[in-house]
Amino acid sequence: MELDRLPPEIEFVLSERGFRERKLRRGLHGRLAIPFLTVDPGGYPRAALLTLGEIRATSRSTLAVAVRAGSRTAANLIRRKTATVLYLARNKAVWVQARAGRGRPSDCDPDRQIFPLTVVRVKVDRPAPEEGVVALTGGPTFSARAGSRLFSEDLYRELGWGPGG
Predict the structure, then answer these.
(1) What digits encode the pLDDT tens for the residues 2-22?
(2) Rounded to an integer, what distance in angstroms lies between the CA atom of residue 4 and that of residue 72?
(3) How many CB atoms neighbour CB 7 within 10 A?
C-alpha cells in the first residue's frame, strides 16, 4: 500500500503522545533504534540509527529529526535533501520517504542539528498470506538508560517547535 502521508498508527508512535506514553512505560519500545537512510555523494544509501527521541511526527505529513552536527548524515541531508525512515513492526515494514528542509543547530544540544522533513511517500509492506505472520523477536535497540544524554526530553520538545524555535 502506498500513501502520501503517515498512517495514523505510525504518526502516533512518532508523535508527542506516543513519546509520553513510552516515557510512562519506559520499556523496550523507548530504546528502539529507527533506521534513518540518506544518500551519500556516490549515490549509495547510508544508514544512521535514531532513537524515538530524535525523530518526531509533527503531523501526518511532517517530521523533524535531530542528527549529529557535522555528521555524514547531516551532510547528506544538506546535499541531497532526501531521506527514508524505516519503521519495523509486527507484520509490517513502513518506509517513509521524505524531503529535508533547511537544517539548523539545536538550541539545547550544540552537538545536534535539526532538520524538518516533509513526507513525500509512505509504503506499507505486509507479508503475503502464504508467508504467514512476521514476528520481530528483537531488533536494533540502544542500551543507554532513560535520562542519559541519548534520551533528552529537551531535544524532543525542540523537535516540535519547528524552524527557528
Answers:
(1) 999 999 999 998 998 887 776
(2) 27
(3) 17
Q: What beta strand segments (E) does 40-131 contain?
A: 45-51, 55-57, 62-68, 82-89, 92-100, 104-105, 112-125
Task: State the CATH number of the domain containing residue 59.
Answer: 2.30.110.10
Q: Can you tell me which residue has the cell 503522545? A: 17
Residue 162 main-chain phi, psi, to 5 deg: 85, 180
Assess if residue 75 is contained within a domain.
Answer: yes
Q: Each residue of 98-139: pLDDT tens digit?
A: 999 999 999 999 999 999 999 999 999 987 788 777 666 566
DSSP tag of 28: G
Domain containing residue 68 = 2-159
pLDDT digits (tens, 9 = 90+) for 129-161: 887 776 665 666 666 554 455 667 788 888 887
Tell me, what amino acid is at 148?
S
Cβ atoms 32, 140 nearer than 8 A: yes
